[in-house]
Amino acid sequence: MTRAPIALTSGEPAGIGPELAGPAWQALRGEVPFFWIGDPSHLDCAYEVITDPSQAAQCTDLPVLPHDFGSPRTPGSPQPAQAQAVIDVIARAVDLAQRGAASAVCTAPIHKKALQDGAGFAYPGHTEYLAALAGQSDVVMMLASSALRVVPVTIHIAFEDVPNALTPELLETTIRITRRDLQNRFGLTEPRIAVAGLNPHAGEGGKMGRQEIELISPVLDRLKNEGMQITGPHSADTMFHAAARTLYDVAICMYHDQALIPIKTLDFDHGVNVTLGLPFIRTSPDHGTAFDIAGKGLANSSSTIEALKLAWAMNKD
C-alpha cells in the first residue's frame, strides 16, 4: 500500500517557516512526498492547492492544503491575530496523522511568546502541545543528526527548577521510551544508552552534588539488571568528543542545554527534533523562527529537509 505523504506545518508566519517549504519541495520532490498546511498567500514559491493529502503525489509544484490566516505575512513581526491559526494548523496536521491521511507530521518553528500573547497558548512548546493532542502523558524530545542523538530528561523549564523536576520516575520513563522508539522507529535491536550526570564531574563521588548517587545510579542499576545496554552517570564534559560518541547510540542528558549545546555545535544545520512516545511520527527542524533573517532570502532549509527525510525513513508501514 502506498504510504500517505507527510504533513508539513506552516509554523510562525513572521519567521522563516513559510520560506523553507519551497526549497524543501525542490530538494525532495520524487523522493519524500509531503504537503504544506498554511495560508498560500504567505508563500513565495510556486504551489498547487489540494483539497486532500492524497492529491499531493500528483503535484508538480508544492502541494498546499490551505488554511486561512486572515492577514498577510509580516516577516520579523508576529501578528497576535494569527496566533490561533498557527495552533490550529498543528492540530489539523495531528488529526490527519491520527486518521492515517498523513504518514507523519513535520512542524516548522513556532514562537511560544507570540502564541501566548495572541492566543493564550498554555504549553511550553511544541512537544508538550503534541502530547496533549495525542492524549499522551509521557513523551520524550530527541535531537538527532548523523553525528549524535541526545535526549534531555527535563526540557523547557528554568535551570533552577531542574533538580526538583528530575525524579527517578521521570528518568526511568524517559529511558524506556527512548529505548523503545529507537528499537521500533530506528531499527536498533539493542540501543546503547549513555546517561549524563547532573552535576560537574557527575558529582565527583558526592563532593559536587548527590543526585548521581541517590537518584541517577539506582535507576541505571535497575535497568541494567533488566538487560539494557546502559552506562553512566558520566561526566557530561567528556561525553561528546568523537571517540566517546562511538560508544553509544543515544545520550540521555539531565537538562535542555546539556543536550542541545553539543548537537547544535556539532551539526547545527542538519539536526532534527523528534518527539518519541507519540502514536504518530513527528519531526521538526532544530532551529527557531529566526525573525532577524525572515523575508531576506537567507533561510537555510537543510534542517527542514533532514526532518522530512527522517520522518519518511522512520515510517515502517
From TrEMBL:
Subcellular location: Cytoplasm
Matching InterPro entries: PdxA, PdxA_fam
UniProt keyword annotation of Repressor present: no
Catalytic activity: 4-(phosphooxy)-L-threonine + NAD(+) = 3-amino-2-oxopropyl phosphate + CO2 + NADH
GO molecular function, one term: cobalt ion binding
GO cellular component, one term: cytoplasm
Enzyme's top EC category: oxidoreductase
Superkingdom per UniProt: Bacteria
Gene3D superfamilies reported for this sequence: Isopropylmalate Dehydrogenase
Other comments on record: The active site is located at the dimer interface.
Family assignment from sequence similarity: Belongs to the PdxA family.
Subunit text: Homodimer.
Functional description taken from the UniProt entry: Catalyzes the NAD(P)-dependent oxidation of 4-(phosphooxy)-L-threonine (HTP) into 2-amino-3-oxo-4-(phosphooxy)butyric acid which spontaneously decarboxylates to form 3-amino-2-oxopropyl phosphate (AHAP).
Protein name according to UniProt: 4-hydroxythreonine-4-phosphate dehydrogenase
Record organism: Pseudoprimorskyibacter insulae
Gene this protein is translated from: pdxA
